Amino acid sequence: MARIPSSLVAAGGLVGGYGIARATKRRELGGVALLAAGAVAATQWKRTAGPATAVALSGLYVAAFAGSHPLAKKLGAWPSVAAVSSGVALASWAAVDRRA
Questions:
Q1: How far apart are CA 33 and CA 17, in angstroms?
Q2: How far apart are CA 45 and CA 25, in angstroms?
Q3: How far apart are CA 13 and CA 23, in angstroms?
Q4: Phi, psi of 20 (to 5 degrees)
Q5: How far apart are CA 67 and CA 16, in angstroms?
Q6: What is the pTM of this model?
């Protein structure tokens, strides 16, 4: 089975979490998707690049989620989610996926 790059898992968690919350009008369902993808990505980060990188990227993932909320007031919801997801994906690719 092909391995899905951690950058796609992390970005997908941010985009998918928001999309699920918006589509279902149940924020907690979006949170479950966000948390599940974050856990999968963190496991991949730790396995590939070690615990320090996993902690740093996990912090970035949480900061991106939190930062998307005030950013949405300036850019709009979807552009904000796209921006933070792209940032997390790029950081994950640079720190982990390009090595694999």
A1: 5
A2: 31
A3: 15
A4: -65, -45
A5: 16
A6: 0.94
Cβ(96)–Cβ(45) under 8 Å?
Answer: yes
Polymer length in residues for the chain: 100
Is 83 strand, coil or helix?
Answer: helix
Q: Which amino acid is at 30?
A: G
58 contacts: CB under 8 Å, gap ≥ 6: 38, 41, 42, 45
CA distance 100 to 7: 12
Q: Round to whole Å and give the CA distance between 47 and 37.
A: 15
pLDDT tens digits, residue range 23-80? 999 999 999 999 999 999 999 999 999 999 999 999 999 999 999 999 999 999 999 9
Task: Report the distance separating Cα 95 and Cα 41, nearest Å.
Answer: 12
